[in-house]
Amino acid sequence: MRILVATDAWHPQVNGVVRTLTSLSRAAAKLGADIEFLTPDGFPSMAVPTYQGLRVALPNRREIARRIEAAAPEAIHIATEGPIGWSVRGYCRRNGLAFTTSYTTRFPEYVSVRTGIPASVGYAVLRYFHNAAAMTMVATPSLKQELSERGFKKLGFWTRGVDTEVFNPDDPAKLELPHPIFMTAGRVAVEKNLEAFLSLDLPGSKVVVGAGPQKAELEQRFPNAHFLGEKTGKDLTSHMAAADVFVFPSLTDTFGVVQLESLACGTPVAAFPVTGPKDVIADLPIGALDHDLRAACLRALSVSRQACRAFALERSWENSARQFIGNLSALQASRAQQPSRVATSRRPVRG
Question: Does domain 2-161+316-336 have CATH number 3.40.50.2000?
Answer without folding.
Answer: yes
